Amino acid sequence: MIKQFRGILKIAFKLLVNDKSKFIALLVGITFAVFLMIMMMSMFSGMLARSAAPVFNIGAKIWVMDPAVNNATSSIPMPDYVLSNAKSINGVKYAVPIYFGNALVKLKSGAYQAVNVVGLDDATLFGRPELIAGKIEDIYAENAFFVVKDSEFRKLESPSIGAQFEINDHRGVIVGVAKVASSGLFGVPTLYTTRHRAITYIPTTRFTTSFVLIEPKRESDIPFIQKQIKKLGYQALTKAEFVEKISDFYTYQTGMGMNVLMMTAISFIVGLSISGQTFYTFILENLERFGALKAIGAKSHELISMILFQASFTALLGYGLGVGLASGLMMLARLRLPSYASQVTYTNLTFAFVMVLIIAGVSSYIGVRKVLQIQPFDIFRG
Predict the structure, then answer these.
(1) Tens digit of pLDDT for each residue in 62-116?
(2) For residue 200, what are the contacts with CB-CB under 8 A and spacing of at least 6?
(3) With contact defined as beta carbons under 8 Å apart, do 22 and 281 qualify?
(4) What per-residue confidence (pLDDT) applies to 282?
(5) The pLDDT of residue 337 is above 80
(6) Is the separation of the CB atoms in 26 and 314 below 8 Å?
(7) Quick one: average pLDDT of 347-357?
(8) What is the biggest distance separating any 2 CA atoms in the chain, rounded to whole angstroms?
(9) pLDDT value of residue 236
(10) How far is 170 from 377, CA to CA, in rounded Å?
(11) 351 and 44 in contact (C-beta within 8 Å)?
(12) What is the pTM of this model?
């Protein structure tokens, strides 16, 4: 029985690959569809990851913010009593303020460049980046700033230690070069300094605390801390919850999510239409062969197995080629374009695989219907 089944699949394979033009057309259609789906979803995943870059880079377990805040770069300053109350909550190990702001700096060449400025708590420097040049204590020097060496580093003319710039008529000096876990989304360089210096150099509102960062004593204390912060009229989110909130904002409240969804749907429709039409043409051209097999005793379920094998083999091969092509292109883009935001995730791969299975299922259904209608007498009479 197994031997007979292998023989049927072998015949199916030969029928498929012998018609090289149809086989290649099927592969190209599915590969192109998978390629587009993976590229679009991976770029979206990369953009979402970079949108939460400040959360990953700072690394705080709990972020206290105004409930209206929907991303890390658009904070709503809070009054100082929020920090004082946070420190007094049972289960809080420590709580520190942090400042996020934007500024325009004048470089040595005379060019102007927008920057993100992160003001760390003066006493603890909690959330400080890892230095690759310079000393951490130098941040307390006059006019001192750390610069992040990421994909946007060159926009500041690739400064080294000692480089100077002007920020709102104040002199700034680079005293350290740092690295972070993730670059930002909008292509803006990042500078770190103390919170006091940041709010002194950059025009601010009456309140200057962008977020309050809390370190709980135990993980079990987090729900209680969140309830106490809520009583103040503010929101306390864990790192994962804040990342999810940012992702939801960019997915549902901006055009990013809808644009990616539309492009992914178009990719799926293109792949489905090409593979379905090509597979149907392939079946039509091989009706005589399927009819001959049926005349010599091939059962309906064996013919169905042949169709399913042909569609599945082509779909899986196209899936592998599409993923490989997309991954290779993304690697090449990263080498050439450091700011390119894209990442392949298991979710993306799984979603594309399910879409390919649907394409294979529809193509198989089209072929099976036609093959089951074959009458051997009509084949031989023709």
Answers:
(1) 999 999 998 888 889 999 999 999 999 999 999 999 999 999 999 988 899 999 9
(2) 170
(3) yes
(4) 74
(5) no
(6) yes
(7) 86
(8) 97
(9) 94
(10) 93
(11) no
(12) 0.78
For range 312-338, the mean pLDDT = 85
Strand pairing report for 170-179 and 235-238: unpaired
Q: Are 29 and 358 in contact (CB under 8 A)?
A: no
Q: How far apart are CA 374 and CA 307, in angstroms?
A: 14
Q: Which amino acid is at 45?
A: S
Whether residue 176 contacts residue 136, with contact meaning beta carbons closer than 8 Å, is answered with: yes
Q: Report whether 274 contacts 322 (CB < 8 A).
A: no
Average pLDDT over residues 198-204: 89
Each domain of the chain, given as residue ranges in start order, spans 2-51+255-381, 79-233
Asked whether residue 3 carries a pLDDT value surpassing 70, the answer given is no
307/365 Cα distance (integer angstroms): 9
Q: Which residue has the tokens 């969804």?
A: 261
C-alpha radius of gyration, the chain, whole number: 30
**Which amino acid does the sequence have at 88?**
S
> What pLDDT, on the 0 to 100 scale, is given for residue 90?
92
Per-residue pLDDT band at 226 (split at 50, 70, 90): very high
Smallest Cα–Cα separation from 16: which of 259, 234, 318, 243?
318
Q: What is the SS3 assignment for the chain?
A: CHHHHHHHHHHHHHHHHHCHHHHHHHHHHHHHHHHHHHHHHHHHHHHHHHHCHHHHHHCCCEEEECCCCCCCCCCCCECHHHHHHHHHCCCEEEEEEEEEEEEEEECCCCCEEEEEEEEECCCCCCCCCEEEEECHHHHHCCCEEEEECCCCHHHHCCCCCCCEEEECCEEEEEEEEEECCCCCCCCCCEEEEEHHHHHHHCCCCCCCECEEEEEECCHHHHHHHHHHHHHCCCEEEEHHHHHHHHHHHHHHCCHHHHHHHHHHHHHHHHHHHHHHHHHHHHHHHCHHHHHHHHHCCCCHHHHHHHHHHHHHHHHHHHHHHHHHHHHHHHHHHHHHCCCCCCCCCHHHHHHHHHHHHHHHHHHHHHHHHHHHCCCHHHHHHC
Alpha carbon distance 73, 208 (integer Å): 14
